[in-house]
Amino acid sequence: MTQAEIKLCSLLLQEHFGEIVEKIGVHLIRTGSQPLRVIVHDTGTSLDQVKKALCVLIQHNLVMYQVHKRGVVEYEAHCSRVLRMLRYPRYIYTTKALYGDTGELIIEELLLNGKMTMSAVVKKVADRLTETVEDGKTMDYAEVSNTFMQLADTRFVQRCPMVHTPENSDTGPPPPAPNLVINEKDMYLVPKLSLIGKGKRRRSSDEDAAGEPKAKRPKHPTDNKEPIPDDGIYWQANLDRFHQHFRDQAIVSAVANRMDQTSSEIVRAMLRMSEVTTSSDAPFTQPLSSNEIFRSLPVGYNISKQVLDQYLTLLADDPLEFVGKSGDSGGGMYVINFCKALASLATATLESVIQERFGSRCARIFRLVLQKKHLEQKQVEDFAMIPAKEAKDMLYKMLSENFISLQEIPKTPDHAPSRTFYLYTVNILSAARMLLHRCYKSVTNLIERRQFETKENKRLLEKSQRVEAIIASVQATGAEEAQLQEIEEMITAPERQQLETLKRNVNKLDASEIQVDETIFLLESYIESTMKRQ
Amino acid sequence: MAGNKGRGRASYTFNIEAVGFGRGEKLPDVVVKPPPLFPDTDYKPVPLKTGESEDYMLALKQELRGTMKRKPYFIEKPEEKPDIERYSKKYMQTYKEEWIPADLKSKNAQGTDKVSSLINAADVLKKIEELEKKGDGEKSDEENEEKEGSKEKSKDGEDEDNEDAEQEDDDEEELEEENDYVNSYFEDGDDFGVDSDDNMDEATY
Description:
Largest interface: A-B, 53 and 43 residues
Number of helices of chain B: 7
Radius of gyration of chain B: 36 Å
Number of strands of chain B: 0
Number of strands of chain A: 14
CATH superfamily of the largest domain in chain A: Winged helix-like DNA-binding domain superfamily/Winged helix DNA-binding domain
Strand order of the largest sheet of chain A: 1-3-2
Strand content of chain A: 5-15%
Low-confidence stretches of chain A: 204-225
Oligomer: heterodimer
CATH topology of the largest domain in chain A: Arc Repressor Mutant, subunit A
Number of helices of chain A: 20
Distance between the termini of chain A: 21 Å
Helix content of chain B: 40-55%
Shape of chain A: globular
Structural class of chain A: mainly alpha
Largest sheet of chain B: none
CATH architecture of the largest domain in chain A: Orthogonal Bundle
Number of domains of chain A: 5
CATH class of the largest domain in chain A: Mainly Alpha
Distance between the termini of chain B: 109 Å
């Protein structure tokens, strides 16, 4: 775990779960797997607090536990899973695009709560949907259940590992930590529930307005005393499936940019056909015959078989090698090459970074070295048609930022510098890693700046919140225009200006975080697929 | 002999042309300090993407941040006991759902009892002090005000008032000593005896 990753994890945990959970989480990420007593001792927090923090982290799938020999239970944190918290808005928005508001809320509840039973999810989502719908109409549980089952069928949600009860129930004292197992085929099996009911609308008197005193919190009415039918079967969001979807999206849009809309539709059809047959980390899809592809094209597209064949040939011959031809049966067998596709996307990202940072001539040199693999200083000047001084300057700039590296080829065994070739080369994997590290640092800086801006203007923000609350309460009791005007003038014009600036800045910083995360996704996918291949 | 050819003259062990710049050419200055924190860039960054999906994700992100803070998973740092229990605190607490698993619940209940009992004890002590002061006259009123004044100053976080804090501690010790000698136990002078009769009604515990 690099320092940048640890710092980013610390900021994310602090924002979402508070300081205590952050302290425990960061300690586990830094030091690896540890038993409970050691955590308490090293972090200096009380046993109670550590237990609570670990509960929260395990609930959200950020920490796993394992029983080691001699009955010691050790806890281990997953840094990469913590970094996923940056991507939550993207997951939720994708579900909204695919399954509408119902799906969006289901995934949101699952992400916010870590693990939930299906009945709890359905109930909460129905309540939330009922509130947004107009008075009188309620959301039926059945509709929400249907969407949930659709999500399970397409594997966007999966079951969590369950407690394993062995055959012989009395094997002495229970183990120190439950052993959780899950069967492959059970992972997407939806339990047979008959959830009948409608969403409840929360009465407006129950809602808390900021600053309103509440002497006594009404006790939650425990309406259903009967046991939950699917107790013990917990569901979580399947992030790998989302990543698969994002990857497919990226490939389709890349093809659309490079060629045209029709070819991107063909690629999309191919990807859809191989969604369930190919595992998420396979380097290729299953070979698909041209006839199958023709049959599964979307209905609106009426291109003839020959045109489809021509498109497929074009795609297979493209130097980017997204699509490959693997045989001739069935009119031609075609596969989508994920490794090459991700490598092309990562390379395009690198080129774009260089172009925006150093200029288009640098980008030309970079692409040249990428294409020719190894070039000497003199050859770079000649091929790129850039004057020597400038070429040297640009090469050294890129070298100092580690986008390009030098390869030494000695002519003599004593490696004398005067008798050695120095060749410039691009190592995509290491450049991608370096860029990824920089992305983590950027997001850390963005989050810190946002927190700094908010802290600077804390007083002003609180004041504006109070004024809004006053306006709301005065409006509720019926007030005239003059009174409202007077209250609004409590915030002076320069203060309003300051608030506007603050809001704009915070929005910009947030939007930047989301977009840096897109780059992080591409680079991480590329690095992961390359490492698996090796 | 052959090695002395270049005596007095600098010579490189490798072909200087290969590196890219000629001899005697002006090299950039040696850098002796770290690079500036916000260096000027030749190329300004590309503007952010805008569009419906970006706006929606932005709104989602900010909403999620707020929602997370209200969930029971957000564990707040336990704050130190304040000097004076503020009346408004009781009404500005945000209520969170109960989420703690069963085996941790009991410990929590104990914790709250301790805190509430401490607060009660502090209240009791203060009540006793004030009742004592009424009998003692102006001098103790000034002391009380000074104590409260120093308490408020220290609450604002100014470090200059370390001395006041110490003074406050001293005052507290003195006053607490007087409280420990609950009237019925210690007969010291006529004044005490006179006052104790008056206060006995209220100070029975």
